[in-house]
Amino acid sequence: MYAILYGYNEVTIAHHTKTLTPGKIQAWRQLRLEKRKDKNGNYPNEMPINADITFGGKRIWYYSGYRIALDKWDVKAQRVKRNNFNLDGVSAADINQRLIKIASAVDDAFDQLELREEEVTPTTVRDELKRMLDEEKSTRLTVGQTYQLLIDERENELKETPATAQWSKGTLTKHKTMLKHLFDFRATLYFEDINDELLAKFELFLIGKGLSNGYVFKSMKDIKTFLNWATMKGYNRNIKYKSYQQRFHDETTSDTAVNHFALTPEELQSIMTFPTHREAIDRARDIFVFCCFTGLRFSEVMALKWSNLDGDILDTTAQKTGQRKRIPLSDDPMRILSKYPKAPDEDDSRLFPKISNQKFNEHMKEVGKLAGLTGDWIIETQSGRERTRTTVKKYEVLAFHCGRRTFTTLCLRKGMSPEDIRAVTGHTTAGMMMKYSPVDGLTIRKF
User: Which residue in 26, 219, 251, 384 has its CB near the most CB atoms, within 10 A?
Assistant: First the structure.
């Protein structure tokens, strides 16, 4: 049933051929490199390995999931030469094992179509191969191209149904940045290439860019989020990524003496009382102080409407966690709200005028300077094993999140239980909350 043919295209190559229906269809299968030049007329460093299948005057290509350099490919044997590796570190033995599996599946696919008396077309052959190889989705899309599909999907949600969108604008921006890093790392990465070794290389690549361990740690979690989505959608069947353990952790997060900047009662009082005649600065101060008394996130404060106010009780639901919170308001936050009356032409207007997080934090630097927060603060970053400490002025690191830390710290100092504080802030674990409450000299002196 099998015949050896010679003289196909380039050089003497062995082929398999079989008669599916006597006298009608013969099929040829060859494993070969896809030699496609770039726009400059040059071949890439590595080329896709495809199964080139011809039958009944038709032809289809089936991608193996691997690439290899031209000089590492044995044309006659239709295999990767022994003791070689591709750029992703996959061995010739592993690649060749995959090629053997595909070659066998091609032969069996035609047998099955013949047995079921189905019409042999490019579509039926490809679908049968996917079924036999357990690959319902085409592996043609790169990891980056698939990541873009997820980003486009979430971006459309934000535009069309923002109330039920799964990502915030900040999360969307974060994933767009990750996609850029991924393309910088390797533009033609495929799901089949992903394993512990490759993810370790990518983590080192991000560290090599000078990014902090904390940023890289969160970034690798974002990559896993994307890979989980790709697996759920059927784009990916390689789950080796699930066992990956990140190499670098941010050891500075356990050091409460640095990075976690919270205001003392005296500093908060200075911010509340310094004179200003600039509306933008005064508004930023009001929103910040409101956070210091409520512990809300920036997105939560900006989303507050008059319908969230029940007398002196703030009734709201956290966007990040979906947790409902009822927060009693003291005199200071109520005084702030009195400065921003309800718009008469709106049924349910926002409590505070809209402002972007970036613009708000720019204003807060000036707020801190005017309030006299000119003392020194230590910022520590860690990239890889290297830790760097930088001394800055306090007003330079004054941003919205400092208000949330200040709320937690002051509540703890006043004796409020961590469980009650978490009910307000929405922290899911005590450990997440406690990093915002540094033990400083003021606390120690009380003992």
Answer: 219
